[in-house]
Amino acid sequence: MFEEHPLLPVYSVKSLINASYYRMKPEYRWRGERHNFWELVYVDKGEAVIVSEDMEFLLKTGEMVFHKPNEWHNVGNGGSSENGVVVIAFVLEGEDTSEFEGNIVSLGPPEKQCLTTVVREAENAYRYFDNDPPFVRLVPRENAAPGADQMIRTCLEQLLVYVYRRGEKIGTKSRALSSNVLNHHADLVSRAKEYVEAHMSEKLTQASIALALHTSVSQLKAVFREQEGQSMMSYLSDLRILYAKRLIRERDLNFTQIAEATGYESLYYFSARFKKQTGMTPTEYARSVRR
Question: What's the pLDDT at 32?
Answer without folding.
Answer: 81
